[in-house]
Each structure stands twice: as structure tokens, then as C-alpha cells.
Specification:
Layout lengths: L3 E8 L3 E3 L12 H11 L4 E5 H10 L11 H12 L1 E5 L11 E4 L3 H10 L5 E4 L2 H9 L5 E7 L7 E2 L10 E3 L4 E2 L5 E7 L4
Parallel strand pairs: 1-6, 1-7, 3-4, 3-6, 4-5
Antiparallel strand pairs: 2-8, 7-11, 9-11, 10-11
Length: 192
């Protein structure tokens, strides 16, 4: 059985973007890129909300071919082009993008079916609106969070609004990076 893990950068006060969607506060360096790349290399599926997928699709398919492509751009572009992309959208259907499946009707049933298949965890990238909806449907199994050393004060919250309390269990894979970011890994605790 696969787990659905929400992957997010967030501020210390729980925001994943500024009030107008700004993400220029996110810290990263090669150490962080390498770490994320190693963890993602075994994956075969990624999930996105429509807006996040459109942003990704506008950049990553050809990022490796750009003249100023970094090693990270090359590796992530290759990964992005290889994996199966699951896109949550009620408006996009029957599109002909490679390795892309649009989930629009009866999303909960479709995701539960995908999670029953054998394979590695499915990473849900960004997409705070989609994450909120999937949390409300009890489909998110964990959180892979990169807490940035900044307090935004306002913006798009990862955890608000949440319909019901969600209990979490901290996993041992916690790490601090030289750029000031702290990685936290949590599993949703459904034991109670």
C-alpha cells in the first residue's frame, strides 16, 4: 500500500506562501537540493493541484535543455519527465500530456484505489488548496515539511482551515540544513 505524503516548504508560523502567493522567502541550497533529489529518486508518482501542476509543466519538462541549467535543473527535469503525474482538476480532462492522469470526479475513490497499488509513496507537491481538501477526506498519510527561518505573519496557511484535529507522529528523519531550513517528517497517527 502506498502513502500519500504532502511535501511543502513553510514558514515558521505555518504559511506556505505569502498573501499573494509569494514564495521568494523559501531558502534552499545545493545540500537541500541533493537531499530532496535522493529521496525523490525512488518515487514513481507525484500529485499536484491544477495550479501547481501548470506551474511545474511550464518549467520542468524542458528545464534540462536550457543553456544555463544547473545540475539540480537537469536531474529534477529528468525525474519530472519520468514519473507519473496525478493532477487534481475538475476542469482539465482527456489532455494528452505524457505520464499525466487527471483526477476530477470522485477524487477520494480514485486516490484510495491508487494508494492500494504496490509501489513507493506518492508525493503531493505544494498545492495547499488540494492538500486541505485531501486532509478533509483523510487521504493524507504524512507530511514532509521544510520549515524556513522566516515568520510571514500572513499568507496561505498549510493547516488552516482544518475540519478535524489531525494527530501526528514525528518520524526520526529530522534534519537541519546549512541554509537554515529544518526538515520535519510526520506520519498521520490514526491509532486513536
Amino acid at each position: 500500500m502506498r502513502n500519500l505524503i504532502s511535501f511543502m516548504h513553510m514558514s515558521l508560523d505555518g504559511y506556505v506562501a505569502g498573501p499573494n502567493g509569494e514564495m521568494n522567502w523559501i531558502q534552499f541550497d545545493q545540500e537541500l537540493f541533493d537531499h530532496v533529489g535522493r529521496r525523490l529518486s525512488d518515487g514513481d508518482s507525484a500529485m499536484y493541484g491544477r495550479i501547481t501542476w501548470q506551474m511545474m509543466e511550464n518549467y520542468w519538462p524542458d528545464a534540462a535543455k536550457k543553456p544555463n541549467a544547473t545540475q539540480h535543473d537537469i536531474e529534477h527535469s529528468q525525474w519530472y519527465n519520468r514519473i507519473r503525474k496525478l493532477v487534481l482538476s475538475r476542469t482539465m480532462k482527456d489532455a494528452e500530456w505524457p505520464h499525466t492522469t487527471f483526477l476530477g470526479d470522485d477524487i477520494a475513490r480514485q486516490i484510495r484505489s491508487i494508494k492500494q497499488q504496490a509501489g513507493p509513496d506518492i508525493m503531493l507537491f505544494g498545492s495547499p488548496t488540494a492538500t486541505h481538501a485531501l486532509m478533509d477526506m483523510d487521504l493524507v498519510d504524512g507530511f514532509w515539511l521544510f520549515v524556513n527561518p522566516v515568520i510571514l505573519g500572513r499568507g496561505i496557511s498549510l493547516f488552516s482551515p482544518v475540519k478535524d484535529q489531525i494527530r501526528l507522529r514525528l518520524l526520526p528523519a529530522t534534519r537541519q540544513f546549512d541554509c537554515g531550513v529544518t526538515e520535519l517528517n510526520y506520519a498521520v497517527d490514526r491509532s486513536t
